[in-house]
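Budget justification note: compute hours in this period were largely spent on complex prediction jobs such as the one shown. Inputs:
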Amino acid sequence: MEQIILNKLSYPILSTIIFLPVLGALVLTLISRSRESLIKWTALIFAVATFLLSLPLFTEFDKSTYQMQFVERHNWIPAWNINYSLGVDGISVFLVLLTTVSSILCILISWHAIKIKVKEFYMAILLTCGAIAGVFSSLDFFLFYIFWETMLIPMYLIIGVWGGPNRIYATIKFILYTLVGSVLMLVGIIYLYFYAGRTFDILELTTKTYPYNMQFWLFWAFFSAFAVKVPMFPVHTWLPDAHTEAPTAGSVILAAILIKMGAYGFLRFSIPLFPEATKAMVPTMLTLSVIAIIYAGLVCLIQKDLKRLIAYSSVSHMGFITMGIFALNSQGIEGGILQMINHGVVTGALFMCVGIIYDRTHSRKIADYGGLATHMPTYAAFFMVFTLAAVGLPGTNGFIGEFLTLLGGFTANKLVGVLASTGVIIGAGYMLLLYQKVFFMKVNPKVIGLLDMDLREMVALTPLVILVFWIGVYPVQFLDFMHPTVQHLLERVNVTSVAQETNIVRVLMEVIR
Amino acid sequence: MNLQLPDLGPIMPELYMTILALVLLLADLFLKKKEALAALSIVGVGVVAFTLIGSSGVTFGGMFISDGYSSFFKTIFFINLILSVLISIKYIGIERVNFGEYYSLIALSTLGMMIMASAADLIVLYLGLELMALSTYILAGFIRHDIKSNEAALKYFLLGAFSSAFLLYGISIIYGLTGTTDIKAIASYISEKGLVGNPALTLSMTLFAAAFGFKIAAVPFHMWAPDVYEGAPTSITAFMSVGPKAAGFAVLGRVFMIAFATIKPQWISVLIPLSILSMAVGNVVALAQTNIKRMLAYSSIAHAGYALIGIIAANTDGLASMMTYLMIYAFMNMGAFAVIIMLRTEGFKGDSITDFEGLAKTHPFLSALMLIFMFSLTGIPPTAGFIGKLYVFMSAINAGYTWLVLVAVVFSVISAYFYLRIVMYMYMREPKVEVVTSQSGTLGVALGVAAVMVLAIGVYPSCLIKLARAALTGF
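Corresponding output:
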């Protein structure tokens, strides 16, 4: 019990973040179907309230400790020794915040785009965000699994009901892929439960040591769940379909928070629970990450569909994250966590941008655009910021994250670092090409007369622009949250990362700081 | 000669149930409104359930036992009866079979199940099983003017007769070997005389497995289920997808865990293939169904496979998980059937999967309930179906059957496809036909109870788990 700091705020902050959206969804059931604007405003008010109430996570967080903070703990199912326990540390705190931000953005961006079953849509968005916040803050494996799976139900509906023409195929593929992975993890969780003497407590489980053989099998059982979510090569194929067919808000949830659940799982469970197996699997994991970075990057170059291109770029960017995580050094892991946030911000924003023109033209084909910069200058400016962030231009958040993960990759293995760096070049290639084709070149007659962004759309995107530069210019403020937690994690894995740092790396680190 | 009446305490619920069934039969002669019979049977079952309290004990020279185990199963039977009656009232009117005998037969069938759950002797077991089966055969063919219903009854009867013959054959071999039909005495005789490994004993155990496998609709004894489920009146399909299955599990648990306790490894190796085949055939064949009653028939076969895993774990936790599973299954399956019954109106069958197309647009609330039941049958939290599966898997892993659980979870992913297909039809397609639902208060109550229980157990399973474990003290 030494490892936790109980919630000292006047209200149970984490429960609020999880259940206020759920309450919002329940309130929505009471509103008459025909009063659409009331439905939207109610959903927005609940999302904003959740966000505001989640802010103390940022301001009151104790950066000096790795311990779980804002902890809530109650008996839930004593027969199985299950507790309702929540808490956040340096790994999860930003993911929870990202979730509360995303729910607001999802609601704003769907304001006019969703025309059928409006009530159900906003209910589904709120429920998904609540459940995902639960995933990031659960300290009990059972609770974690409940949220992990519950999230599938509204997400299945979001893609399947409000998605594009091929939505049913996409949503079934999504749910079957994730279910296969999840149930294998469930078997692993139960096995762990009995081995550790009937406990689902994550903190307790991570202090125990397990025989290597067991670590090995459980690592792969957990891998199946997390790798599908990330998604890592070769189980990434559901993501382009899901992203492409999902409504804009669905794509934003997928990109910004849902696929972070996989990377989060590696950090929270796979590494601390199975340190020996993790170390043994590092070469495999790094190889898969590098394949994802390069392969998905190359696939991006030939995409004709805007959303599909960004979806594949997600796979490539998530490759950087898993590379950073499995580099098992402080730069890599911190870079990985930071890049998780960055990717959420940038790719979420890019999907929102695509949604904005899709609402106007109902086309996702790159060939249908061209010369957009002359007709929608504000839009072009916003898109430019996110494109550059995705490319990793210094000064934007993408640079810091990519740089740190590459640093981690180099430290772990030179070849991995070199290969992954080519991914950066490919990334610059496809993003800039995309920008050129859509915004410059000959004006496509189809884009003439399109209205520029309205106030609502700007309000939705501005916070993300701020985040892009805030993290890009002053990353220390974010990295400070992570240091103790990441150090603690690395102690568990027994990797003496500092000793391996070369001088150049150290100098570069100083430059960043 | 001193004739002494046996202690009637333990058998009180059964006596009251008999009286209820007979009263229903008689009242039918005087009452014009058959709805009154439905009300009477629900109130009657309430009284019977009340007599369950404090009925524990052994009577009739050890042939009949009332313990926590039997009481837990009887509770399932009562819930099954009440929910079935609630969803029947309007439905049997639509099918034009609003006869009083319907309620009486349901009561008699439940009586048979109660006797099965309490049987401490193979003869009593057989008695209960036949009472249950005969009543259910009639109920399956209750729509006399419908050829499918007739077919269902006949098939069920013929195959049921076969399974009874298997059971009798098994009982006779046991009797020949041990000279007794008392379940406890059989166990002690086997261990005393060192009969373990005796081929006749193994044969007898296999015959028992076949006969019980028929009742719980486990593969390869499942052939009757799809046709009977499809042909029988929907309310009766719901009734027998829960009741006789639970009763089959009750006797399976008692006979195998007690009488055959000494040959555990043998019967485990018989039940494992049954369980795997049930999950495989049930889930895979369900993928191809176009009739929702048939689909749920295959789903019920698959669920028998999951529940069997609890017995295979062969310990107290395993039995408790099996009991929990059946209780949860009762609620979620009843709920799903209640939705199907709602679609049945005059001149519209409403049992084809395509009838669910676009239901969310015309009936959003009903669709939401069906969504809950479908996700629960798949086993996705926060519904009760997840808790049921989790408990079964936990007990099996604890008993060392991790590989079997791996098989089970893979099949449960396959099952997601056909359960979620219903959700997909409801939410992601446009309505093709105008679906009018048959509204009735009692149907609403049944739906409400089922949905609330599915969610309540899913979020707070503590009570049910405790109940199941407590029921097994002294088992």
